[in-house]
Amino acid sequence: MIDQTTLQQYGIVMNYFAQEKRAFVGRTNLFLIASAGMAGFVSNALSRLSPNDAWSAIAQPAALCVAGLFVTWLWSRAINMGTYWLEHCQQVLKKLEPTAFGDLNVLRGMEAREEEHSEAKRIARASLSLFALLWVIALTNCAVILVIKLNRN
């Protein structure tokens, strides 16, 4: 038998779940755009950087690399927290579903849809890993140029 109270609870949790999915994608896109913008600036600065440049010219892209690593860490935290809340909502919805809908399966038995969401999380984590690697390589480049500059003086 369908319970109206449970149906209302299901609707509330489903709305929150949908909002959290939108927020997850939005946050991921925001971090991706911020990281890409910073990476473009660093790439441009590094392409023209030499040991003969002023200390400030070397420090600027190095500082941006450190900031990029921090943004990457924040991005990782956002992915982890978003994943936690999405999985929590999904578990609550699956518990409410039998009482709310009876034999009708909305989320239960939808492993294919869960795989799609897992794919989105994998893409977000792969993008995050790519930028983490990029920041480490760029920071290493800055360090090499700094060491060369120090050895020349």
Features of this protein?
3 helices, single chain, 153 residues, mainly alpha, rod-shaped
Mean of all residue-level pLDDT scores: 89
* Class computed from helices, strands and strand pairing: mainly alpha
Helix fraction by DSSP (H/I, runs of at least 4): over 70%
Separate helix tally: 3
User: Major beta sheet, specifics?
Assistant: none
Overall shape: it is rod-shaped
The percentage of residues in β strands lies in under 5%
N- to C-terminal separation?
83 Å
Gyration radius over CA: 23 Å
Number of domains: 1
Q: Low-confidence stretches at least 5 residues in length (pLDDT < 50)?
A: none
- Give me the strand/helix succession: HHH
Q: In total, how many beta strands?
A: 0
Spell out the blueprint of helices and strands:
Layout: H1 4-47, H2 55-101, H3 111-152
Helix pairs in contact: 1-2, 1-3, 2-3
Would you give an account of this structure?
The chain has helices spanning 4-47, 55-101, 111-152. With 153 residues, it is mostly helical. The chain has one domain. The chain is rod-shaped, with a radius of gyration of 23 Å. The mean pLDDT is 89.
